[in-house]
Design brief:
By secondary structure, this protein is an alpha+beta fold. The chain is built from ten helices and six strands. It has a domain of 54 residues. β5 and β6 form a beta hairpin. The longest helix has 16 residues. The chain is elongated.
């Protein structure tokens, strides 16, 4: 029978942010007032970020502590492409969740609402297995989803470099990758090297024997055979 791992409850997210001196109690009160008067039923953490009191990463880390789950920065090279297809694409996009990997019949899924036990149960039912959640930043999940396109044997790499330790990454466009193809004169972490490493790792995960790269103006379409 499918089941979701239990979500514990500790300190409220606002209290954790106050304890970390990232926000004041006055700012919490202001955010709560905005939440009460809002017609959109936004979560308190979303409002705190919108008001500029904390970053999305700080709120997500606090949520992880509140519900005693891990926190992870999600990047395009983290999820297993085959595991992403465990859940319907429309469900993933509607709920801003992302299947990452599966070990011993336990599916690890990145979520933005670790408090939503009903969503976690629904994920477990759809996946047909136990589910372990990690808290993640909404923009990380959305940017990673942009990298993947529906299809059984390929995905588009367009934003795989558009992330860093902050909320907004510095994008490296396709032209800069092409310009960096003189590998002998580049450092090991140059964009071209990172791109090739990413492709090889993804191909191994897919069990592919061939990698087909189809360049476009702004994207590379990669197919594994």
């Amino acid at each position: 029978m499918s089941e979701a791992t239990a979500v514990g409850r500790a300190k409220p997210v606002g209290e954790i942010l106050v304890d970390r001196k990232l926000i004041t109690r006055e700012q919490i009160a202001e955010a709560l007032q905005v939440q009460k008067s809002s017609d959109t039923r936004k979560l308190l953490g979303e409002i705190i970020v919108e008001l500029g009191f904390c970053t999305a990463v700080q709120v997500a880390e606090a949520l992880a502590d509140t519900y005693d789950v891990p926190f992870a920065r999600i990047t395009p090279d983290l999820p297993d492409p085959k595991i992403i297809r465990t859940l319907p694409r429309d469900f993933i996009e509607e709920n801003t969740v992302l299947p990452l990997f599966k070990v011993d019949d336990v599916l690890t899924v990145a979520v933005t609402e670790p408090s939503n036990v009903f969503l976690i149960e629904e994920i477990a039912q759809l996946a047909g297995c136990s589910v372990q959640i990690v808290a993640a930043v909404k923009s990380d999940i959305e940017n990673t989803l942009k990298t993947y396109r529906p299809g059984a044997d390929g995905f588009v790499i367009e934003d795989m470099f558009k992330y860093d330790d902050g909320d907004d990454g510095e994008a490296v466009d396709l032209n800069s990758v092409i310009d960096a193809m003189d590998l002998e004169s580049q450092a090991s972490d140059a964009p071209a090297v990172r791109l090739v490493n990413h492709l090889i790792q993804s191909a191994v995960r897919e069990g592919a024997s061939d990698i087909h790269v189809e360049p476009d103006e702004q994207t590379l379409r990669v197919r594994f055979r």
